[in-house]
Design brief:
Layout (H helix, E strand, L loop, with lengths): L21 E4 L15 E5 L3 H9 L2 E3 L3 E4 L15 E5 L5 E5 L6 H12 L7 E9 L16 E5 L1 H5 L8 E2 L8 H12 L4 E8 L6 H5 L21 H5 L9
Parallel strand pairs: 2-6, 2-7, 7-10, 8-9
Antiparallel strand pairs: 1-4, 3-5, 5-6, 8-10
């Protein structure tokens, strides 16, 4: 696992900037739903396919939470990432979603993840859903996979649980997990927390339905939480996603 985690910073030079710290804001502290420690599953979704999956497959209820940079770091550069939008799945308080509103810079991902995980119970499962472009995937000696394809990395605590039939292929070396995914796996492994980082393969800038549906293999994780009457409908969410120009 450690061989496939991209370090967030370089060891070549000392960075004299103060260590950045993020603060988790619960919003309405009087509301029962504002207690992250009561949720059993946290799902962090990257922009694009993962967000389309979350909004199309689940009935989401807004939560008042936010993540912001601590006061002492307000003048940091680069600018801090926008706070994700937080939601609860259905009418219950078991599954929380965090929909990213842009990428978290690699050198801020460790502090960002620390602020998030500190609010949730140690027994809460954590999933990070994102995409990997087919042109970015390194594949030595074998043909690159095609859509639909779901791959990823997970902690030992996740592997110990019964996850038969999920269909998540191991992320092939020499591909690595970066940013939030790498920080989550590192911190969750150290804390013996169950964590899965799953990447759906996206072939080109245009987001196709097969790319989104790859995440449906994870439905068993939400078996006790997903409203049975809700059928996945990604059409509206797909219309809101503009194709990315850059592949980097």
């Amino acid at each position: 696992l450690l061989d496939q985690l991209e370090p967030p910073v370089s060891d070549d030079e000392d960075d004299e900037r103060p260590l950045e710290k993020f603060v988790f804001d619960r919003g309405d502290k009087g509301a029962e739903s504002s207690r992250p420690e009561g949720y059993r599953v946290l799902v962090i979704c990257g922009e694009g396919a993962a967000t389309v999956f979350a909004t199309g497959a689940f009935s989401l209820r807004p939560l008042p939470w936010a993540i912001r940079l601590a006061e002492e770091n307000r003048r940091s550069f680069p600018p801090p990432p926008r706070s994700p939008q937080f939601f609860a799945a259905g009418d219950g308080d078991s599954v929380a979603f965090a929909l990213l509103q842009g990428s978290v810079p690699s050198d801020q991902s460790t502090a960002w993840v620390e602020a998030v995980l500190a609010e949730f119970a140690p027994t809460a499962e954590v999933l990070f859903l994102d995409r990997i472009y087919r042109t970015e995937m390194l594949s030595h000696g074998v043909e690159r996979p095609e859509e639909p394809h779901l791959c990823g990395l997970w902690t030992a605590a996740w592997a110990r649980q019964t996850r038969a039939g999920l269909g998540v292929a191991p992320l092939r070396t020499p591909n690595v997990m970066e940013g939030v995914g790498a920080a989550l796996l590192t911190q969750c492994e150290a804390a013996d927390r169950a964590c899965l980082c799953a990447l759906t393969l996206q072939d080109g800038a245009h987001l196709a339905l097969n790319c989104v549906r790859s995440f449906e293999r994870l439905f068993p994780v939400f078996a006790d939480h997903r409203p049975a009457s809700r059928q996945p409908d990604y059409s509206e969410a797909l219309r809101k996603v503009m194709p990315r120009v850059s592949m980097s």
